Amino acid sequence: IVGNSVVNASTQSAERGGNIRIVAKQIDLLDGGQLVASSFGTGDAGSIVVLVSDRLLIAGEDANFTEQVNNAQRILEEGDIENLRQVINRQGSNGLATDDPNNSAPSGIFTISEESGAAGSIIIRDASSKPSNNNSAQSETTNRVVVQDTVDDRLDVVIGDGGTISAQALRQGNAGSIIIDISGALEMANGNIRSDAAELDGGDISVGAQTLQMADRSSINARASGRGDAGDIIVNIFDELEISDSDIHLYKSRDHY
């Protein structure tokens, strides 16, 4: 999934949005390619489940996204609402999955609540039926699809160059939880994993892997900026844990103690 490409499930009503579930040997989300489950209303956003047997790569940003945002803003200022709707439909939901002041659209997996609905959960696991490294994540879902069952198989997840996994509530909803439960390495280089809530509860982040490497300003963050509780961060690494110029951070705003 490359460039201005998106797999999107959204709701604008009081009903829950649809889920996204992808099973594959290898998935690459590059240069702004995104999986997005979003809510614009009181209904909860759907969840995203990614089951991979070999590699999940998330890297890069959409170089054309700033121009798209500027075009949409110009149309809005001219009052041509129908034309704006057509532009949004053509562009998919990349505009939802950015909070960068420069309007960059990172590659990644996003669940987003724009109003009072809750953001959905994000689950990334081996597609095979190998045992989990992450006991806390094991209870969240038992959905497993056997793609390959060779004992040497392992799932590696690489997040770099601005790639992001995010479960975010921008207003009155709860943020979603993130579970990464893999048999191989989680490698991050300028990559981000985050669960943010503006007003209510943040989601938990649970990481289970053989090894974890974080470098080049990578981050794993759980944040609650309003009156809700921040989520927990659980990291369960079977072998090596390396953190360089990066952080694992849990934040709760003092203004709402």
Task: Please give a structural write-up.
Helix content is 11%, strand content 41%. Strands 2, 4, 8, 9, 11, 12, 14, 15, 17 and 18 form a 10-stranded parallel β-sheet that branches. The relative contact order is 0.15. The radius of gyration is 18 Å and the shape is globular. Helix 1 runs antiparallel to helix 2. The chain is built from 3 helices and 19 strands. It is mainly β.
Attribute tags:
257 residues; mainly beta; ten-stranded parallel beta sheet; 11% helix; 41% strand
Topology overview:
Blueprint (H helix, E strand, L loop, with lengths): L5 E6 L8 E11 L3 E6 L8 E12 L1 E2 L2 H13 L3 H11 L13 E2 L1 E6 L8 E5 L8 H4 L17 E5 L3 E6 L8 E4 L3 E5 L2 E6 L7 E5 L1 E5 L3 E6 L8 E5 L3 E3 L3 E6 L5
Parallel strand pairs: 1-3, 2-4, 3-7, 4-8, 4-9, 7-10, 8-11, 9-12, 10-13, 11-14, 12-15, 13-16, 14-17, 15-18, 16-19
Antiparallel strand pairs: 5-6
Helix pairs in contact: 1-2
